[in-house]
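I am still learning, so would you mind making up any protein sequence you like and the tokens describing how it folds?
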Amino acid sequence: MSKFTMDFKKASDLKISAKTPIYEKQSAHEVDPITYQVVFHKLWQIADEQEKTIQKISGSPIATDAHDFNVMISDSYGEIVVLGTGVVMLGSVMDSVVKWILENRSENPGIEDGDIFLCNDPWVGALHQNDMAMIAPIFVDGKLFAWTGSTIHQVDVGGVNPGSFCIDANDLYAEGQPWPPIKIVKKGEIQSDIEDLWMRQTRAPALLAIDLRAHIASINIVKSRLLKLVERYGADTVKSVMEKSLDYAELRLRNRLKELPDGTFRHVDFHDVAQKGDRGVYKIALTMTKDNDRLIFDFSETDPQIGVINATLISGTAGAVLQAVLQLLCNDIPWSVGGIKRVFTVEAKPGTILSAQHPAGVSMGATGSAWLAGNCANITISKLLMGHPEHKERLVAGTAGSWVTVIPMGLDQYGNPFLTMIMDAMAGGFGARSFGDGVDTGGLLCTPSGQCPNVESNELFFPILYLYRREKTDSGGPGKYRGGLGAELCWIPHDTEQMLLTVSSFGAAIPNSAGISGGYPSNTVQVKMMRDTNIHQLLSQSLIPQDFAEMEGKLEIWQPKTDAVQQKNDVFYFCFQGGGGYGDPLDREPDKVSEDVLENRVSQQVAYDVYGVLLDGNGKLDEPATEERRQQIRQARLA
């Protein structure tokens, strides 16, 4: 195995140089329950302050508005004690970065107090190259006591396409450069030569420079607060709390799994288009086995690696599985990830899409194949939960099953160069539950605190004018309980002549928000452009068109991986997926369907075709006709 390919390792398996002494407790140290809760919640609060620091200092709307980052605090061996509330995958893979540093940097150049390491290498511990982590050791009495780190999605780290979602790449060498952990701060001082190298590769150096300092500030906050905690309660006490939190999270999850039935559960999802010009559809297949108090996630039947949609096993795939485990099985268990990871394993065949081998293209791995791995884990765990009368309430149907990446670049309304990633797809539809509808535009399963930016913020910072952003009718999967709606949006350039748009999405050919227990999937993604329209003439007449049919122009339906220039009179549109449904749509109360139609959540056509519900000319429920229609649908199914 290559030096630059990290494997799943326990702390006891790490080979650490004697030059890096590890803090060990002086003796067995019992912590009373009250002290444990006080210290552990203080660790939790420190991580929360770390998140707030990044949001206050970062100049990138990706972090400040959408919260596309995460933080963590770990023990001296990288076992995560506290995980932040941002994008789960971004924080959960930093343990492998720590372990790689311990094995490969403890001898040369060494690990010292005041050091900070930078890493964006997917084979070490990054979802893709845009996700830059900064990891710092914390020393007590000259010995390595803990680690802290943060990962922020960077708007651009180089590569053949703006935004570094490299749809034109054939392999890693046309994408952003992956950096294995390198010491960018030494004994508290930024190494200007390393910073210059990092800035030289990007199209947005100012944003990367301020994000670098947001990382450093957040790390300094953690170090200061943690050392004060050690000073107050003693190093052995804090160390014992860390150890106990890992053991407690593990015990709670094992006990929960023992309550659930053993068995094997499967789900298959599909990724359409591996790079620009491709027209293929590729399989992501999961077999999950639950045996007593353990889970095994086996992706071995997934298709071979291809294009730029691949993920590495240690980062994207394992991180995607963890997010489903945390959200569905651990919502009332402390997210001490180091303990939780002891309970499950993740497997995939080397050379497949979910265990990509160097130099496979991985720039779309985070919002591509890893996303689908998370979908598969979500559905298989939900199938497991269906077998228990109480835990059934924890399941969630497919949620925001795909992501639409849109990267605009050009000159902004102030005449300055700009480059950003539109984060509106943070408002995906949540999947239905076993007891109720999914939340409309409720967010993503992968990030508890992710946020959809305000329209006004995007219009302030970037040269775009929205015609609308709204919940999309029929985007929630039909079911006894309906999936939450996704959204659609439409914009034109504003105070600029043109901009380059790079789109990297999936889910146009196949819906990825699966239904559960007879529920239907959500809508599919669509991206399109109306060229040479009369939009400015309409606006001059105080008319804001709400559909392409209300405009003149030439319609283009875009493939999931596309880049093109948007001119002043061109109108750009995309929609993203809602949530999957739960249960048979024919079992949905007709009054709820009627209400959905009146509120434009469901069209009359879908109400008739799928739910078997008819409304009269006044929009009121026609009960006899509804019962007759539902009988027709049931008979057609039997035929």
